[in-house]
Amino acid sequence: MTTKNIEARLMHILLAPQISEKATFVAEKNEQVIFHVASDATKPEVKAAVEKLFNVIVDSVQISNVKGKQKRFGRYMGSRKDWKKAYVCLAAGQEINFAASEQG
């Protein structure tokens, strides 16, 4: 892969920050940030994408596969898509401010 392809791939790895009560508790306690990532993303790709986009130093990445919920559509059962989330542990003193990153 060329450098241009790698950079384009990194831009599509992170889909959204996971904002929830549990995510805020984890962020305060463990200095981690939770992201909704592409389903084929790997730990090194997530680490590189976070470091490139937010200019922070990443210590480690844990990835969790989340099964889609079973839902009823009329009289038929279906399911939502499976997805992947990444727990990104930042180095000491590092912080991601989502409000500031949207402006710049």
Fold and architecture overview:
This protein is α+β, with helices and mostly antiparallel strands and 104 residues long. The chain has one domain: Alpha-Beta Plaits, CATH 3.30.70. It is 36% helix and 34% strand. It is globular, with a radius of gyration of 16 Å.
Derived structural class: alpha+beta
CATH topology label: Alpha-Beta Plaits
Distance between the termini: 29 Å
In CATH, what is the class?
Alpha Beta
- Topology as H/E string? HEHEHEEEEH
Please state the overall shape, judged from the principal axes of the Cα atoms.
Answer: globular
Low-confidence stretches: none
What CATH architecture label applies?
2-Layer Sandwich
Q: Share of helix among residues?
A: 25-40%
Q: How many beta strands in the DSSP annotation?
A: 6
Overall pLDDT: 88
Proportion of β residues? 25-35%
Largest sheet: 4 strands, antiparallel
- Radius of gyration, in Å, reads 16 Å
Number of helices: 4
Q: CATH superfamily, called what?
A: RRM (RNA recognition motif) domain
List keywords for this structure.
single chain; 104 residues; alpha+beta; 4-stranded antiparallel sheet; 6 strands
Give a topology summary.
Layout: H1 3-11, E1 14-17, H2 21-30, E2 32-37, H3 43-54, E3 58-66, E4 70-73, E5 76-79, E6 83-90, H4 98-103
Antiparallel strand pairs: 1-2, 2-6, 3-6, 4-5
Summarize the structure.
With 104 residues, the chain is α+β, with helices and mostly antiparallel strands.
